[in-house]
Specification:
This protein is an all-alpha fold and 509 residues long. Helix 3 packs across helix 5, helix 6 packs across helix 7 and helix 11 crosses helix 15. It is globular and about 65 Å long.
């Protein structure tokens, strides 16, 4: 195996705000399309699966994530960091990609095998019954393919191939839906059908991406580089640990203090709130993760950082507000009546996602400065706060207490990370503009609670007008830079025009 490989000298740059916005929009459109299809399937899934089966599926994910958390080693972020170079260095290192693949396959494969051996114990821990061990074993196979696939997707993102990433995401969605229709709806395989479908879909795309990526970068594995990547990424494994507790421990507390049915209804609320995560926050993270290292090298990188923060903060708050006031109407139409209680906690979960999204900017300083152990320490504090909040609130308030526990933990995480980042490298972010749009969104939500009961169309029209009012007032009072709004709208319209201009399949040009 090679230990001294010449890095690539020529490299494109993704340092401008415009480039980051363009990638963000591509990823967001792809995620919106994915979520739209998923929501259209809700009436089918909620009639085929019981709340108990929803609860089982949610808790199987908890068990699988426990294994994935230990075995991830932060390799995706470490690969991006070492591929893009360090400090003022302006060269790319393709051996980082193949080294990440080899290291990830070895660690993930071993972790999945150990997880399968201990599946009965793990099932007792998260589901309270060893009979569910078979579901966990299927989930671990899916975990291996999902995580190795993520390395290939990260390489595409760092090479600015946003359209290709979006195509892969939509393709996996389409194949997942097809397998679910066959295995879950037609053959009535329940939770097992979902897991078998995931194994087939992610296994296929993981192998395709690995082949294409390694053909591009070559198979050059460096043990020395692997050690440096693990040293950088290993502390980051505590971050998924914290997110696992924030995202899943509430389900464990609900299962013990309530029922699997209550957990299933809460899982649906989480799924609805995740529209914000998947349509806004994760697309931005995908664009920002490779870009943050290159922005840091620019002489005017601080200004780009500030502009991106203000634009992102405005966008994520407005999106959360829109989803919060529409959750009751949408769930009422898309889900069976026994799931309608999920609408109560969706706004609280959306607030938690907003806090998590904002913290991406604070994390950037520590990642760029190679201070990943500090992020690991913050993650431990976050996990402890979340468990304590769940233990205190869930027995008294059940789902509402679980959602509030998320908000409390993530606020502590964001505040602590910001405090550390400011001492390493002050960024002078515009929190006044952020506070303005938050205040308007909270006021708008209060107004929406006072609206009279109307038909679905009238209700949605009134709430759409309320969203437009909040957006207009935000621009007027300076919650977002008007120039950035114009740039974002221009990029979005350009992307939509390109979509409409594409010929239909089979059209001769």
């Amino acid at each position: 195996m090679s230990t001294a490989i010449e890095p690539v000298v020529v490299r494109p740059s993704i340092t401008s705000a415009r480039s980051l916005w363009r990638s963000w929009i591509v990823y967001a459109l792809s995620s919106v399309a994915s979520r739209l299809v998923g929501f259209l399937m809700l009436p089918i899934y909620t009639r085929v699966l019981s709340p108990e089966e929803y609860g089982i599926r949610a808790m199987v994910t908890v068990g699988v994530d426990l294994v994935g958390m230990v075995c991830s080693l932060g390799l995706t972020t470490a690969m991006i960091r070492h591929y893009t170079g360090d400090g003022a260095e302006a060269r790319r290192h393709p051996e980082a990609v193949s080294t990440a693949y080899a290291t990830g396959a070895l660690v993930l494969g071993g972790g999945a095998a150990l997880g399968m051996l201990g599946a009965r114990w793990l099932a007792m821990l998260v589901l309270g019954d060893a009979a569910y061990a078979g579901y966990l074993r299927l989930g671990l196979v899916s975990l291996f393919f999902v995580n190795t696939m993520e390395i290939g997707l990260a390489y595409l993102r760092v090479r600015q191939r946003a359209t290709t990433v979006a195509f892969v995401g939509l393709s996996t969605l389409g194949l997942t839906l097809a397998t679910n229709l066959v295995l879950v709806v037609w053959l009535r395989q329940g939770v097992a059908g979902i897991l078998y479908g995931e194994i087939f879909t992610f296994g296929l795309f993981s192998l395709i991406l690995a082949r294409l990526t390694l053909r591009d970068v070559g198979v050059r594995v460096s043990p020395a580089l692997a050690r440096r990547m693990i040293a950088y990424g290993a502390p980051l494994t505590l971050m998924p640990f914290a997110w696992l507790l924030v995202n899943r421990s509430d389900g464990v507390f609900l299962t013990h203090h309530g029922s699997l049915g209550a957990t299933g209804i809460y899982a649906l609320a989480i799924q609805c709130a995740q529209v914000l995560l998947l349509a806004v926050i994760l697309p931005f993270r995908d664009a920002w993760e490779p870009g943050q290292f290159e922005v840091a090298r620019q002489p005017d990188g601080g200004r780009t950082y500030q502009r991106m923060f203000q634009t992102f903060a405005f966008t994520v708050v407005i999106a959360a507000f829109t989803l919060a006031i529409g959750a009751e109407d949408v769930i009422g139409v898309m889900a069976a009546p026994r799931f309608h209680a999920a609408a109560t906690v969706v706004p609280i979960l959306l607030a938690a996602h907003v806090v998590m999204g904002i913290s991406l900017f604070f994390n950037s300083v520590l990642l760029v400065k190679n201070r990943t152990p500090l992020l690991g320490g913050v993650a431990l504090v976050t996990a402890a706060v979340n468990v304590a909040a769940n233990a205190l609130l869930v027995p008294r308030f059940l789902a509402v207490g679980a959602a509030c526990s998320r908000v409390i933990a993530l606020v502590v995480m964001a505040a602590l990370t910001w405090w550390i980042a400011e001492r390493l490298s002050p960024q002078r972010l515009d929190f006044v503009a952020f506070a303005k749009v938050v205040a308007l969104a909270v006021a708008g939500f209060g107004v929406s609670r006072l609206l009279p009961d109307e038909t679905l169309i009238v209700s949605l029209a009134l709430k759409a007008a309320l969203v437009l009012a909040v957006v207009g007032l935000s621009v007027v009072i300076g919650a977002v830079d008007r120039r950035d709004v114009r740039h974002l709208l221009a990029l979005l319209l350009e992307r939509l025009r390109l979509q409409r201009a594409r010929p239909a399949p089979g059209t001769v040009r």
